[in-house]
């Protein structure tokens, strides 16, 4: 027994015996990558490292019309642009779009499509807000109301890419597209959702914003 106790003493203190709040406080002073590594040490460390308090401490200060979160697999930053941060054609014309609140939204306002025949939504973000050498994907965050119409079997053009480049196109997809940030690359990433060719009237789309998430899972 004495030999076992001596071995434990030489191995150093058992930090997992500390209160979870204390562990979380220490981990919050490190980095997302460190938190992912520390979570593998013990169940106590995993519980502390998974806490919202820890991950909230890694986020930059919130900006108006922008929300930040962290991907807990990679520790990389996700950025969401609110509907107010987007360029929505006719967005300030009440007969076409309405600005309202949605209880589950991260933002004070969302944009609800009342009735348009020309749907065009664009968003831009500076590449300096993103990690270089990282694959990202952009997603339209939205919901459909019971009174929606005009989108049935109708291709909606979506895309994402650096401003000035040809953005990829997909049909009827929540994911707008992917892009890769490069070392030393400076510019703006542009994302778009459009339906302007058919001219039919559309309604019932509620836009919360566009979120940029890392595709890399390591």
User: CATH superfamily of the largest domain, please?
Assistant: Galactose-binding domain-like
What class do helices, strands and sheet pairing give?
Answer: alpha+beta
Strand segment tally? 12
Mean pLDDT: 80
Biggest sheet descriptor = 7 strands, antiparallel
Instruction: Give unreliable regions as ranges.
Output: 1-8, 166-173
Helix content: 10-25%
Q: Indicate the radius of gyration in whole angstroms.
A: 23 Å
What is the N-to-C succession of helices and strands?
HHHHHEEEEEEEEEEEE
Which of globular, elongated, flat, extended, rod-shaped describes the shape? elongated
How many helices? The count is 5
Distance between the termini: 43 Å
Here the CATH topology of the largest domain equals Jelly Rolls
CATH architecture of the largest domain: Sandwich
CATH class of the largest domain: Mainly Beta
Integer tally of domains: 2
Tell me the strand percentage band: 35-45%
Domain F-box: 15-55
Protein name: F-box domain-containing protein
InterPro entries: F-box-like_dom_sf (IPR036047), F-box_dom (IPR001810), PP2-like (IPR025886)
Characterization of this structure:
It is a single chain. By secondary structure, this protein is α+β, with helices and mostly antiparallel strands. It folds into two domains: 56 residues, no CATH class; 149 residues, Jelly Rolls, CATH 2.60.120.260. Helices cover 17% and strands 36% of the residues. Strands 1, 2, 4, 5, 7, 10 and 12 form a seven-stranded antiparallel β-sheet that branches. A five-stranded antiparallel β-sheet has the order 3-6-11-8-9, with no helix packed on it. A hairpin with a 6-residue loop joins strand 1 and strand 2. Helix 2 crosses helix 4.
